[in-house]
Amino acid sequence: MKKKTSSRILTPFIIAGVTVGFLVSAYKFVFRKPNEEQPVEISPLLEEEKE
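Below the sequence we write its predicted structure tokens.
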């Protein structure tokens, strides 16, 4: 019976790819710049409290 060596070879690359993808997503989430083009909407309730 032949052992499957392809799964042994591919497994580290799959794990590394998932890890790198997770780290890139976390980096983008932590260090992303806020969009200055979109104005921040103030709730009407907060405006009434100021008055």
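The chain is about 65% helix and 0% strand.
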